[in-house]
């Protein structure tokens, strides 16, 4: 058994999917971030392709199987400026690939983060296809477009080009960002010696996530139910899928490749 195979089997024992094996062989590229880059490309491609195809399919059918609108959905006023917070979700997606370290443990947990993200996508796509709901409250914001600040109007118009008023619940904005926050919190705690202000970063991240979750309602991109169902499925995934695998032991072994110390220094964590 080669050292690369041995290393990957350690990841497999720690809950990583076998499909990551070809990408694990690239781990020493890009200054040791080859595995990170490969997973980022796979997850991004899967997410974009799946989201937009289900979005267009739901719009083409034009069928709402259950309308989750409640009185509060229309009572909450549209806040045009909250589009800035809403779009901040795209700042979350790179975080796992930047903060997960280049140790065996770090790569195992990055694989689990990628797997969790893909599972959230699949679960949500199922609801988008079989229980579609048109986001009818979006018209509240659309009615304000002529009178709002031109920069905000331009952002909404850009969003509307790519995101049709479907794919309602559960909100991927909420579920995906929450999963990232949970992993980043874990990694900042583990790497506390490197991130001296890690606790502050974690607090800021949680406040930002709460604001992001609320913004899906104030931008009229989602219903209130979408926010809670998004957080709920992420919580189920975290405690039912991710945490049991994070508790699995991972074998220590000698470092490999041209970056000595990366595999061994933190493998026991």
DSSP summary: helix tally: 15
Percent helix among the residues? 55-70%
H-E order: HHHHHHHHHHHHHHH
* Biggest sheet character: none
Mean pLDDT, rounded to whole units?
Answer: 92
> Roughly how many Å is the radius of gyration?
20 Å
Instruction: List how many beta strands DSSP finds.
Output: 0
**How many domains in all?**
1
Intertermini distance: 25 Å
Give the CA-based shape.
Answer: globular
Helix- and strand-based class?
A: mainly alpha
Q: Could you list the spans in which at least 5 consecutive residues all have pLDDT below 50? A: 253-269
Strand content: under 5%
Keywords:
15 helices, mainly alpha, disordered C terminus, 66% helix, single chain, 269 residues
Describe the protein.
This protein is mainly alpha-helical and 269 residues long. It has one domain (33-247). It has 15 helices and no strands. It has helices spanning 3-13, 21-24, 29-32, 34-61, 71-75, 83-86, 89-92, 95-99, 104-130, 138-142, 150-162, 172-190, 198-218, 224-246, 262-265. Helix 4 (34-61) runs parallel beside helix 9 and helix 12 packs parallel to helix 14 (224-246). It is globular and about 60 Å long. It starts with a helix and ends with a helix.
């Amino acid at each position: 058994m080669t050292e690369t195979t041995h290393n990957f089997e350690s990841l497999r024992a720690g809950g990583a999917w076998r499909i990551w094996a070809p990408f694990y062989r690239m781990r020493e590229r890009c200054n040791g971030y080859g595995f990170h880059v490969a997973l980022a490309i796979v997850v991004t491609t899967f997410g974009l392709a799946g989201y937009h195809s289900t979005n267009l399919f739901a719009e083409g059918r034009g069928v709402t199987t259950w309308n989750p609108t409640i009185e509060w959905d229309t009572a909450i006023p549209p806040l045009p400026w909250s589009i800035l917070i809403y779009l901040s979700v795209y700042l979350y997606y790179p975080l796992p690939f930047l903060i997960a370290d280049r140790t065996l443990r770090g790569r195992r947990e990055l694989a689990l983060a990628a797997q969790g993200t893909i599972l959230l996508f699949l679960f949500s796509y199922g609801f988008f296809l079989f229980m579609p709901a048109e986001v009818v409250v979006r018209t509240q914001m659309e009615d304000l477009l002529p009178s709002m600040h031109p920069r905000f109007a331009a952002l909404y118009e850009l969003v509307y080009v790519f995101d049709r008023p479907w794919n309602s619940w559960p909100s991927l904005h909420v579920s995906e960002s929450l999963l990232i926050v949970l992993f980043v919190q874990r990694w900042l705690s583990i790497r506390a010696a490197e991130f001296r202000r890690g606790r502050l970063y974690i607090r800021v991240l949680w406040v930002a996530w709460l604001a992001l979750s609320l913004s899906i309602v104030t931008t009229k991109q989602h219903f209130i139910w979408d926010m809670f169902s998004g957080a709920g499925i992420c919580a189920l995934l975290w405690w039912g899928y991710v945490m049991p695998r994070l508790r699995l032991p991972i074998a220590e072994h000698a470092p490999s490749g041209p970056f000595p110390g990366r595999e061994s220094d933190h493998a026991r964590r």
